[in-house]
Amino acid sequence: MEIEQKYPYHSLRAEEALEKLQSRASGLTDEEAQLRLEEIGPNELTGTEGMNPLLLFLKQFKDFLILILFIAAGVAWYAGHMVDVYVIMGVIMFNAVLGFFQEYRAEKAIQALKSMIKQEATVRRGGKAKKIEARELVPGDVIILEEGDSIPADSRLLQAKNLQTVEASLTGESLPVTKKVTPLEEKVHMGDRTNMIWKGTHVARGTAQAVVAATGPHTELGKISSSLGEIKVTTTNFRKKTDRLGKQMAVISILTSLVVFVLGYFLRDYPFEEVLLVTVATLVSSIPEGLPAVISIVLAIGAKRMARQHAIIRKFSATEMLGSVSVIMTDKTGTLTKSILTVKRIFLGDGSEYAVTGTGYAVEGGLTQNEQEVNPSDSPVLRQLLLIAGACNNAKLGEQPGEGKEGAEKGEPSVMGDPTEVALLVLAKKITTKNEGLLPEVRQIDDLPFSSEQKFRGLLAEVEGQRVLMAVGAPEKILKLSTSILTAEGPQDLTDELRQEVWEKMDSWAEEAMRVLALAYRPSDGTSEEAVADDVRDLVWVGITGIVDPPRKGVPEAVAACRSAGIRVMMVTGDHKKTGAAIAREVGILDGLANDTSYGDALQEDELEVDDQEFSRMVDQVSVFTRVSPNTKLRIAETLQDKGHLIAMTGDGVNDAPALKRADVGIAMGIRGTDVAKDAAQIVLSDDNFATIVRAIQEGRIVFQNVRQTSYFLLTTNFAAVAVFIVAIAIGWPFPLTATQILWVNLVTDGVMELGLATERGHGDIMKQKPVPRDASILDREVVPYILLMSSIMLGLALGAFAYYLPQGEETARTAVFLVVAMTQVFNTFNMRSLERSVFSIGLFSNKYVNIAFVVSLSLQLVVIYTPLLSGLFRFEELPLVDLLVLLGLSSLVIWGAEVYKYFRFGRKQAREQK
Ligand code: ADP
Ligand code: MG
C-alpha cells in the first residue's frame, strides 16, 4: 500500500481524491486505519518528546553559582585546604542532585498537564461517525467538521456548506477564507487552494466533510513549526516579578559578602585565602539559588491542584495570575446554570397556554391545561409547534442513560448537541412517543445551524410533499421576521395587539428566569435546495416555549465567596435581559451592588450604544449585560482593564476567541467549548462550572502566597547568617563558621526546607482578603520588621553560643554556632507557613512535607556532627547531649518570637474577623 501525502490533491475531483487515498465516502474501517497508523505514524508534530533526565542533570552544572563554587574550590586548593576542596566538590554534587530533583518534579507536573490537553476529531469509520483522538488520524480518514472545530490534519474537502476557515496561524491572513469543493489547477499556491483545509487552522463557520491527505510532520504546519498548541512558558508579569526578586536578593548578598571581605581583610588581618574562602562561601549561601526552581515547583503544584479541581492550565503563568483576578465576567448557560434545559410552558399563536410536566431530559411527562391532561391531536397549532421543535433541531437523544453529567437523573437518555435544542427535542419526544402518527413525516433537505449573531436556526424540509422553511430562535428576532400568526383556522395577520400579547407573555416568563424560544415557519417555493439566513423572513408565528435551566449547585456559594474575596462577578450573556437578571438574582450576583441604580439591574446590547464615558459608568454600576455581542464583551473587558482590573473571562464560541485572548485570564468551557475557544484560553474548565473558577482563584492566591513565604524565608535566613559573620568579625573573634560549614548549613536548611514550604496549602482567610494587586512585588515592606526581629533573635543566639563555647576551643564553638544557625532557620520554616496566623492555629504538623524536611534537615546536621569521619572533615567537635538539647530549645525561640509578633500584629484583627 502506498499513500502519497504530497500529491496535489486539490487538482483532483473529490471522488478521485478519495480513490487516490484508497478510501471511500463511508470512511476507512478501523482495521485499515490501524494498519496505516502503524505504517505512517501518529498525527503529531515532531519535537514534542519528553525530557532527558541526563541532560537535565548536566544542566544543573551550567549555573552561575556552581561557577562560584568551583572558584571557591580553586581557592581552597591554592590555600592547601584539601579537605575543603573535597567538601566543596561534595556540595556541588549535592546541589546538582537537589536541583535536578526540583526541576524533574516541575517538569513531570508540566507533562502531566500536557497530556490532559487532548485534541479530538470526529471521523467516519466503517460508515459510523465517532470521536477519536486527533493523533490517531491517518490519510484516507473522512473527517466531519463544524463551526469552531480546529482542523486536525491537512485534508481535501468532500462536502462544504457555508464553509469558512481562518488560516491566520498558517498564512498570516486574518480574514476568513471561503472554502469550496471544486477542483483547482495544479499550480495554484497553497494559500489559494480553497478546496483544501489545513492542520492548525479552524472552522469559523459552516460545516464540512473532508478526506485526510497528510498527517503530522507531512502537513504544511508540520513543515514550518513543531510547537503549536503546547503549553508555553512565556515571560509574563510574574516572571518579571520573580526576576526582580532574584536581582534584589542577589544585590543584597553581594553587598553583604563584600562587607565580610572588607572587614575581614582590612580591619582584621585574617590570611587572604581564608577571607576569600569565607567570603565566597557566604556569597554562595546567601544567593537564593533555589528560588527559580522553587517558583516553578510552586506553580506546578498549583497547576496540579487546579487540575484536580477541574481547571486545566494551558499557560503556566495563569496559575499565579488567577490570584490577582478582581473581576470575573461569566456567561450564564452552563456555567452558572446546570445546562440541563427543560421546556416548562408553551404559549401558542391562538392564545392557548400549556404546562409541560416532567423534569430534566427524561422523556416522561405530557401537556396539561389547568391541571388537566390534554390531547395534542385536538390542536393543529400545537401539532405544528411540536413538528418544528422536533425537526428544526440538530440534537440527538441516545438510548443509554447519560453518565457523569451533574444533575442528570437516572433514566435520562444521553444527549448530544446544543442543550437548547435537546430541550425542544425532548418536548417533541414526550408527546410523539405516546401518540404515534400524530405528526407527519419530515424529509430534511438542508440545515441552517444556530449562530449567536443571528440568534436563530433554520431548516429547509419537505412535509407532505410541501417545502417549508422552519425557524427557531430568540423571540424578539423571530417576531420581527414574522408577518402572520398561526391559529386553528390557519395563518392570520399578525396585528400589533397580537404582537403586544406575545411580548407581554414573553416578558413575564423571562422574569421567572425562563429562556424563551419562538418557533415559526414559512411555506417555501420548492426550488431552493439550500437553507440560507436571508430566506428566514415573512414567517408564520406558531408560538413560544419557556425553558428552565436551574442554577448549578454551589454557584450561589461561589458567588458569595467571590464577594468576600473582593472579586466582582459580572454576567455577560446572549440571553434575554429579564432572564439574565432573574438568574443573576437567584445566584446572588445582584446582591449588595451599586449604590446608584439608575441603570437598573441589567442592560442589554441596544442600550449600550453610548460614548465611552457613559459606558464606563454603566460598567461600574451594572453587573448583568444581556443579548451581548462578542464585540461588546470585548469592550466591557477593555473598559475594566483600563480601570486597573485584572479580569477572568469565560467563553465557548468561535466569536469569544478575541475576548478570551484579551482577558488577563481567558477561561474556556471544556464540555461546551469549541476548539477555537480552548486554543485562545489559558484555562480550560473540564466541568464548565463557575464554582471551579473560584476554586482555581483560591489556588492562584495560594501560589502567590507560597512564593512570598518561601522568599521571605530565604531572605531572613541569608540575612541572619551573614550578619553573624559581620558582627563576629567586627568584634574581632575568629570566623564563627568555616567555609565548608556555611555551605553545609545552606544546604541542610534552605535547600531542604524551601521544598516543604512550596507545598503549603494556604489558610482559612485567603479568600477573605482583597486580590493581590497586579503589580504588587513579591518583597513587601510589610515584612521588614519581621525579618529584623527574626534576624536579631538568630544573631543574638548564634553570637551568645559562640561566646559561651569559645573558651572550650574554636571547633566546639563553631559546632554550637552551626547548630544554632541551622536550627533557628529550620524553626523559622514553621513560622513562614503563614505570614499572619499562629503556626499552632494552622496545625504545627499539618504540612507533611515540612515535617519530612524537618526530619531530613535535623538528621543531616546530626550526621555531620556525630559521625567521626564527617565531623573530622567538617572539623566539628561532639557536643554533650544536654548541650545539644539546650541549644535546640534555645533555637526554638524564633517560633515564640514570631508567635508574639503575629499576635500583636494580626491576632486582634483575626479575632475581630471571627466574630
Ligand atoms: P447564551 O447561551 O449566553 O444564553 P446565546 O448567544 O447562545 O446566549 O443565545 C442567545 C439566544 O438565542 C437565546 O436566548 C435563545 O433565545 C436563542 N438560542 C440559543 N441557542 C439556540 C439554538 N440552538 N437554537 C435556536 N435558538 C437559540
Ligand atoms: Mg449558548
Automatic annotation (TrEMBL):
SUPFAM superfamilies: Calcium ATPase, transduction domain A, Calcium ATPase, transmembrane domain M, HAD-like, Metal cation-transporting ATPase, ATP-binding domain N. It holds the Pfam family E1-E2_ATPase. It is found in: Cell membrane. The keyword Metal-binding does not apply. It is a multi-pass membrane protein. Residues 8-81 form the Cation-transporting P-type ATPase N-terminal domain. Signal peptide: none annotated. It comes from the Bacteria. Residues 11-38 form a coiled coil. Residues 397-416 are annotated as: Disordered. Residues 402-412 have a biased composition (Basic and acidic residues). The chain crosses the membrane at residues 61-79, 85-101, 249-267, 279-301, 712-735, 783-806, 850-869, 881-904. Belongs to the cation transport ATPase (P-type) (TC 3.A.3) family. Type IIA subfamily. This is Calcium-translocating P-type ATPase, SERCA-type.
